[in-house]
Amino acid sequence: LALIPDLNRFALTLAGVAFTPDVYAAAVAIVAPSNLITTLEIIPPYWESIRIIDKVRVGDLETEAGRAQLIRQSPLNSVERIKTPLMVVHGANDPRVNKIESDQIVVALRDKNLPVEYIVAPDEGHGFQRPVNQMAMIAAAERFFAKHLGGRYQESMPPEVEKKLREITVDLKTVKFQKKDDNYMRRRLGI
Questions:
Q1: What pLDDT score does 188 carry?
Q2: Which of 14, 54, 132, 188 lies 20 to 30 Å from 22 when distance is taken between CA atoms?
Q3: Closest by CA position to 122, among listed 94, 88, 103
Q4: DSSP class per residue in 126-150
């Protein structure tokens, strides 16, 4: 979720802050792929039908032109253009967009001293389904937008939400990612 400076328009994309950075005042990227190559490389074999569709919709990993397109379209490769404060949200058990996608963009933004916050729920997958996690994420996003847009937010919250928010807020110093080679992702994920 990204707020455009006029505060009346929204976008649901990490790509928006990477490719049109002047449009957004602040953004929350929820389970967003940052590197289309690694996203597609780790699609499990039982999702072969999705891989075939993605070859047409996103790009073909097997061709030089397709890989070039995927590299060009990956927000991670345009991180130097991002200037929008960004909150990244991910479920640790996401089978569609692996947490590594969020780790990569968080590390890149952190290492460039860009404003970034990170929330990871260890008991979630693709999106937050548990009500306490949803409430914690919304509270964090509300505080994040207030901080970067100069608004206000409701500080009080139920104790279980406050506890959960502390648990899922990631210390940026602890986030690591180092791609070693093209097969690094598959080995790390055991596929």
A1: 47
A2: 54
A3: 94
A4: SB--SHHHHHHHHHHHHHHHHHHHT
> What pTM value is reported for the model?
0.84
Backbone angles phi, psi at 28, to 5 degrees: -125, 115
Q: What is the largest CA-CA distance in the chain?
A: 53
Distance of CA 43 to the CA centre of its chain: 17
Asked if residue 189 has pLDDT above 50, the reply is no
- Rounded Cα distance between 186 and 191, Å, is 5
Residue 29's SS3 state is strand
Structure confidence by residue, pLDDT tens digits, 110-161: 999 999 999 999 999 988 999 999 999 999 999 999 999 988 899 999 999 9
What whole-number distance in Å separates Cα of residue 191 and Cα of residue 182?
13
